[in-house]
Amino acid sequence: MAKFDLTHKLGQYLDRHLVFPLLEFLSAKQIYDETELLQGKLDILSKTNMLDYAIDIRKQLHPNAEVPEDLKIKRAQVVAELTELQNEVELVYKLMQNEEVMQTMETMRDPKVLLSHLTKEYDFKIDMMDNLVKFAKYRYECGNYSVSTSYLYFYMLIMPPTDKNYLNVLWGKLASEILVQNWDTALDDLNKLREFIDSNAFANPLQVLQQRTWLIHWSLFVFFNHAKGRDHIIEMFLYRPNYLNAIQTMCPHILRYLATAVVINRSRRNALNALKDLVKVIQQESYTYRDPITEFLEHLYVNFDFDGARQKLNECQEVLYNDFFLIACLDEFVENARLMIFETFCRIHQCITIGMLAEKLNMNPEEAECWIVNLIRNARLDAKIDSKMGHVVMGAQPASPYQVLLERVDTLSVRSEALQNLIERKVKAKSQDVSFSHVHFDFNLIMPVLTEPMEQ
Amino acid sequence: MSRFFATGTDSESESSSEEEQVQRQPAAAFTFSDDEEETKRVVRSTKEKRYEELTNLIKQIRNHKKIKDMSSMLSSFEDLTRAYQKALPVIAKEESGVTPRFYVRILAELDDFINEVWEDKDGRKNMNKNNSKSLGSMRQKLRKYIKDFEKELTTFREAPDGDDEDEAEEEDVDSDDSDAKPVKKTVPKLEQEKAAKKPTAGDDGDESDDSMDWGSDSDTSSSEDEEDIYTNIRDRFLKKPEKEEEETKREKKERRDRVKKREEEDDGGVWETVRGGVAIPSEKPKMFAKDAEIDVNLVVRKLSEIMAARGKKRTDRREQIELLHELQNISELHNLGPAINFKIRLAIIAAIFDYTPKVSDAMKPEYWTKLLDRIPDAMDVLLANPDMQVAEEILEEHEQFDQEPYQIRGCVLTVVERLDEEFVKLLKECDPHSNEYVQRLKDEIKVTQIIDKVQTYIEHQNKPAEICRIYLRKIEHLYYKLDGTVLEKREGRMPADTVTSVDVMERLCKYVYAKDNTDRLRTRAILCHIYHHALHDNWFEARDLVLMSHLQETIQHSDPSTQILYNRTMAHLGLCAFRHANIKDSHSCLVDLMMTGKVKELLAQGLLPQRQHERSKEQEKIEKQRQMPFHMHINQELLECVYLVSAMLIEIPYMAAHEFDARRRMISKTFYQQLRSSERQSLLGPPESMREHVVAASKAMRNGNWNACFTFIINDKMNAKVWDLFSQADKVRTMLKRLIQEESLRTYLFTYSNVYDSISMEKLSQMFELDKPVVHSVISKMIINEELMASLDDPTQSVVMHRSEPSRLQSIALQLVDKVNNLVDSNERIFEMKQGNFFVRGGGGGGQGNFRERQNYNRQGQDWGRQRRDRENRDRENRAY
Fold first, then answer.
1. Which Gene Ontology terms describe the biological processes this protein takes part in (chain A) (predicted)?
2. Which of A88, B151, B376, B422 gets the highest tally of CB atoms within 10 A of its CB?
3. Please, are residues A26 and A32 in contact by the beta-carbon 8 Å criterion?
4. Is B844 close to A419, i.e. CB distance below 8 A?
């Protein structure tokens, strides 16, 4: 199953700390060799300050070996540095402890006013903010995410977006929120960050592209954990050309997540359009990226190869089961995928044997019949079951020419009306214009009269 | 600017200059260089220079006077006064403020002349407008100007002096010049020497003669001058009388020889071959004075002296080359170091380039081969000395020849670029079907080797702009060549780490993308890159590059040669798409090329005879310059065939589906024309040409007869004509077969669906020899897209048609609705146009959208229905975000 594992690709665009959950997940799934994974974790940890964790893993990896001396020394160093930094931000810490201050801060919207207020009242200096950011970063490096969240929150209340650290703080905040699994705030931060990036603060387009790619990857955590995430993911990845560009150029593997989101979001309003757009993108990128999920859609909507789609659906299940982000929506995906197959099938056929259908949907015949009956009962399908022959007979009939005619004429009247309205509005505007110009004209006439006496 | 850059040197002036060369005393300019003369020049400087200027202008004015060319006279006069103004300080110093007599004389002459002309009323009337206008202003100006010189003028008029004498003297000089013609062989040595001296000293010989008569102190100096020469010569005679005599003889003989040769040249004889060995050694000895110690400075001075003559009308270009060779030999003999050596080599190369006077003409093959020898030599010298720096920015004064790091002014890059251009010109000169062309084409290896050498040098220098330029040269030699190893590598027959031309292209182009800041190089690099990808069947890469570059929107603003390259690229992209069975893309790539019917011109593969208006000569010349050399041509028949076949595969099913549709539109005009012209014929024979084959195939396909269609498209004749031109012809043929089967099936279903109530898929798959899943997939697609009113019946494996055939009334009503829809559309559009888009945003959006879609349809790249993507920073600025 390692073939379809994307961790190594995703990892390139994630923060070290964000990779841990992925690695944990992988070790739980036991796709890779455990020691290799542990070694990988250790490598990642070596550049963070989470030394306790590193020592744990080292013990796991070499149960008999002593903890090396330098790790211990480093640990002491880290602690010392931490306290030092802590001292430097003591004042801010106190401020944050103060309920009253926090309340006033939250009520005050304008950062400038807030800043002057703080300086006046509490002997606050703007220089402290640099230290604050450093400290928050350090805390984050140590794995103390919730603390750094609150510090960064404080920072963002005070500092204007033009500050040099602002972007870093936004990223840090997002990462910490993700790691403490605070999905609501994480979503807010994500949107803030996206707006910041899109507002074109960077001169270099390559940099923007890179930032977007990172954002796309980080956002996966939020989108697949937040309740509303699935709507957002489609909206952001598929309907923002910048992000779609970024996906196509930098990371076509994201298409897996996009495809899954579209499939499980079938009940959404524009699901059909989204599907069409997605299939187009998948086709275009088919030469750079393909996996069972994109192939499933391709089989179903490009080639109408139901057998192929069925096979791919089987593979999809496995892929989903082994994907950190997607494992939660496995059932939903399978259900929706089945529905998609069935729906397409029904649109093409007028008479289907239940046995064949069951085979195509990976179900046994009884189950399938039950499922279809449910569908019919819920009025999502206009069909009847011929149980003697074991057939499903579709009820839909093509529109008669008369109906076609009516439909076309229908839109006509609407459009004409719109046009008429427009013209009317235009005429109205024009007549207003005319009266204005009259007034103006008269005024001109008056002017000389007014000036003449003054000259005399 | 050297004359080489001047575009329009017409042959007339050329021939005249050639004549001049014949008259001139050859080799005179540099044979007698001695230090004395040089110092003399320095002395002469300020005063004589000014005076020379004045006398020249005076001469001009006299000439104008003779032909009564008032306007030129006016301008010369203005120049004269200006020059006099400049000369004033000198005059004040040298002649204690007395106006020189010759100046006063010309003023007097002018005054008289103008008055005379002015009085001559009839003559004035007959003058053309320009002249009479000039006359008026001339008169006024002169009057004003003369006021300052009134005193001098009166004194002059009192005692006018030897005007006639002067004239005579001048004539004398002229005749002297003409005496110097080499034809006259009996002239005594001395006089010949003197005559030979004349051109060296330029006009100052004349001038001194003039001034002698005017009786100023320049008289004495000039006579001294004269004497100097004599003494010089005498010295020579005294020093080595015997040798001299010998030399004189030899020189005479040689001169005679040369005259003969010149005559031969005029007759168009093959003089080159005779020349080779004889001339060079005979001219050897006179480069430097005998006893001069040859060092770097001397050589450099000599070199600049030779180079100073470059581009002048009277210099013999061939001789220059020889002189330079001579100089090179000397410098090598004296071991003056690589820098000077290289400098001279550069000069030689430049001189060889100069040999061909006209830009539009190709150079002579023998000079071409010479170039091919010289340039690598020079480059070897350059590469052997890594700390030698050759650049355009180095000024002459800062050149360093004697010690490291050497600094030389010059540019190897332009040399190579020029070489490349010459190569193309040479190729175009040859008949492409002759052996000569092949022979010439073999030189390309050498050219590319030179480019490689220059590339290593420039890479070493590390100047991005120049690296880009040399890379582009390399790219342009690479892009149109098919590298077989690419395909072998793809099939795994070669190890994966073989470096193919695709990899090389990738590397070069990426460098250009990143480092270039002139848009042109980048555009060309992208186009070549796309071309190369398309050539090697890298369809996706090629397509992505096209879409990312957004070139299709801006290409019409670029220069013609880039546009031609764009057209060539699109043609190959179309072929590539075709090979990949992307018929629609192929069609949309080629449609712009084929629609005009001017493929030949668009691809620069030949001039079309024009019907409406004749091209002017100038225009024809320019167009000829743009033509591609033959080995880079794209087969037009192949192109047209691919286009027509892809049009057929799209158009025929479409026609069948929309047979009764009021709004049917043509997808391919050219294809329609072919169809219609065959329909017009009353009697149809079996197809002969490629077009007839395609037309016949289309007709077969219209009836759903895939087999007939297939045999018309693919048979021995068509194979020989078209399909075998593809490198993987068999693959293309199987692809075509499948496509023809599928499209025939579609056409069949569209055409005959109203006859059937139901039809078994089994039967269909037999009829079209397709696999059942394919039939299923094709039919499913048609049902989903609502092209076919039918549905599948699973138990019986058949297609059930839904009879929804509209009655006559209904179909007419439908058509009416369509038309009314059109009306509303156009109304909305009109409203929009009148209105701008102020309120339309929300309402009427449908109409707007439709309109845009239609507009987009014809534009390539956009109808590919693809979100554009920007892989790198290109065009990102254009975005709205």
1. formation of cytoplasmic translation initiation complex
2. B422
3. yes
4. yes
Q: Which amino acid does the sequence have at B654? A: Y
Tabulate helix, strand, coil % of chain A (nearest 5). 75, 5, 20
Listed by number, the residues of chain B in 757-796 with a beta carbon closer than 8 Å to a beta carbon of chain A are: 773, 776-777, 780-781, 783-784, 789, 791-795
Question: pLDDT digits over B276-322, tens only?
Answer: 333 344 344 456 655 666 677 777 777 777 777 776 766 677 777 77
Query: Which carries the bigger pLDDT value, residue B465 or residue B161?
Result: B465
Tell me the shortest Cα–Cα distance from A29 to chain B, in angstroms. 35
Give the gap in angstroms from C-alpha B846 to the nearest C-alpha of chain A: 8
Closest chain B residue to the Cα of A408, Cα to Cα = B817
Distance (Å) from the alpha carbon of B482 to chain A's nearest alpha carbon: 23
pLDDT for B228 beyond 70: no
Mutate to test the interface with A, among B543, B545, B779, B794 (most CBs of A within 10 A): B794
Q: Which helix (H) or strand (E) holds B267?
A: helix B241-267
Of A347, A394, A404, the CB nearest to B814: A404
d(CA A293, CA A314): 10
Helix/strand/coil for A49: coil
Q: What is the DSSP string of B676-728?
A: HHHHH-SS--S--SHHHHHHHHHHHHHTT-HHHHHHHHSSHHHHHHTGGGSTT
Residue A393: strand pairing partners: A351, A384
Token pair for A452: 């003449």
Say whether residue A236 is in contact with chain B using an 8 A CB cutoff.
no
Q: What is the pTM of this model?
A: 0.66
Cβ count within 10 A of residue A403? 11
Within A123-165, residue ranges assigned H as helices are: 128-141, 145-158
Q: Strand pairing partners for B403? A: none
- Which of A122, A49, A137 is closest to A90 using CA atoms? A122
Which pLDDT does position B112 carry in this prediction?
A: 82
CA-based nearest residue to B572, from B599, B597, B601, B536: B536
CA distance A276 to A270: 10
DSSP-based three-state secondary structure for B25:
coil
Whether the Cβ atoms of residue B114 and residue B106 lie closer than 8 Å to each other: no
Report pLDDT digits (tens) over A147-158.
Answer: 788 888 878 777
pLDDT at B566 (0 to 100): 92
Report pLDDT digits (tens) over B551-607. 888 888 888 888 899 999 999 999 999 998 888 889 988 888 888 778 888 888 877
Chain A residues with CB under 8 Å of B847 CB are 415
The first and second tokens of residue A376, run together, are 């019919």
What pLDDT is stored for residue A398 in this prediction? 58
How far apart are alpha carbons B293 and B287 in whole angstroms?
12
Residues of A in contact with B871 (CB under 8 A): 249
CA distance A9 to chain B (A): 18
For residues A260 and B71, what is the distance between their CA atoms, to the nearest angstrom? 86
Q: Is B662 on the interface with A (CB under 8 A)?
A: no
Q: Spell A187-220 as b/e; 16+ CB within 10 A means b.
A: bebbeebbebbbeeeeeebeebbebbbbbbbbbb
Which of A241, A348, A425 is closest, CB to CB, to B867?
Answer: A241
List, for residues A277-299, the tens digit of each pLDDT value.
888 888 888 888 888 888 888 88
Cβ contacts (< 8 Å) between A405 and chain B: which residues? Answer: 810, 813-814, 817
Q: Give the pLDDT of residue B658.
A: 79
Judge whether A142 and A50 are in contact, CB under 8 Å.
yes
The residue-averaged pLDDT of A107-129 equals 72
Interface of B with A in 523-582 (CB under 8 A): 540
Structure tokens at B533: 């990808």
Any A CB within 8 A of B800 CB = yes
Average pLDDT estimate for B245-266:
51
Contacts of A398 in chain B (CB under 8 A): 789, 802, 804
